[in-house]
Amino acid sequence: MKTLIKNVNALLPDGTTPVTNIMIAGDRIKAVGEVPADFQPDKIIEGSNHLAIPGLVNAHTHASMTLLRSYADDMVLMDWLNQKIWPVEAKMNADDIYWGAMLAALEMIRTGTTAFADMYGPCMDKVAEVVIASGLRGVLSRGLIGVAPDANEKLAENIALHKDYHGAGEGRVTVMFAPHAPYTCPPDYLKKVSQAAGECRAEIHIHMSETQSEVEGCLNDYGKRPFAHVEATGLFEHGTLAAHCVHLDDEDIEIIKKHDIRVAHNPGSNMKLASGVAPVPRLLQEKICVALGTDGTSSNNNLDMLEEVQLVALLHKVDTLDPLAVDALTAVKMGTEYGAQAVGLKEAGRLAPGALADIVLFDMKNSMWCPRHNLVSLLAYSARSSSVDMVMVAGKALMEKGELKTLDEERILFEAQRCADRLTK
Known about the structure:
Elements: E1 2-10, E2 19-25, E3 28-32, E4 43-46, E5 50-54, E6 56-61, H1 77-89, H2 94-110, E7 113-120, H3 124-134, E8 137-144, H4 151-165, H5 168-171, E9 173-175, E10 178-179, H6 187-200, E11 204-208, H7 212-222, H8 226-231, E12 240-244, H9 250-258, E13 262-265, H10 267-272, H11 280-285, E14 290-292, H12 305-320, H13 328-335, H14 337-342, E15 359-363, H15 375-381, E16 388-393, E17 396-400, E18 403-404, H16 409-424
Parallel strand pairs: 1-4, 1-5, 6-7, 7-8, 8-9, 8-10, 11-12, 12-13, 13-14
Antiparallel strand pairs: 1-2, 2-3, 5-15, 15-16, 16-17, 17-18
């Protein structure tokens, strides 16, 4: 299948947005620019008055938590987890996980996300089914709580998920291992996870240094800060996606650089839970890969990655009192190119020849896109995800002209509400 997106403003890797053409062959971008005579497309998409960007990447979320959106808000993190979230999650069954993930997929497609890194469980096979059916890319992992009585069974589930689904969906499903956090996974358990990940040649997805109390608890329990503590277990030897990384010191940052750890920054969730402000400008200056995530919808409360792009651009300006702290193009790249790198999708995140054809078109025919002095600035500070018009993954349209191509929206909304009611009422 060959597709031509013609006369579109395209966000190129250098940050420019010229009117050009994007040629797609199969699941890849073949070329950007003038259309040669020998390129005969099977489908032509008119791109005038549209901005094409690489698909947004949600580098850290808990997809099926959509069922808990608005259930428990305005609480301290550990009270929120222990008193509200974990008790309801303990009642979730395969049906809940499936429809919660379907609701997440629906929201992600409608808001321009093409790939997401998901840490949840049990029944992550149901999330894999959703990824396959929706057409999205999913980097999935079974959340592992090492202090739970069934900790070894959970690890076995992650191993089975890797065996059964890594590379599924024409390569759109990849699987990581997900020890939840240092405060829920003792050192011996982290070593078990490290061994399993090594045997599967899989990477790690873990929460790190989200709150100050987490850091203090680790110092009290082990005499080390979380990054030094986890490093000693060997977990960072496999490639690591570390979520949050809010409370860091110089030693933490050196460990992150040493192991080429990629950071998933969650500005919306960190603000809502009052976790603190991650030192993102410093991390970027240190050439550390910093991506963006929404976290789960019960702590955000949406999966709108364009909102995270806007939040990261604003939050760090006011935190540092520096209007240059995170500029518009950097914020957009954190949500696209850096996000793809962070979750291991090294061939995505760029509108360039050879890259995976994961593309989002924004309709610019409305007031928030006028006047068009600088399209990157408009995207980072003015636009809303409601102007997402087309979403393409691997060269296939998941939504076109606002019409979903792979999902039944009406049924998903009905089933998700049914599951949420059973869990919470």
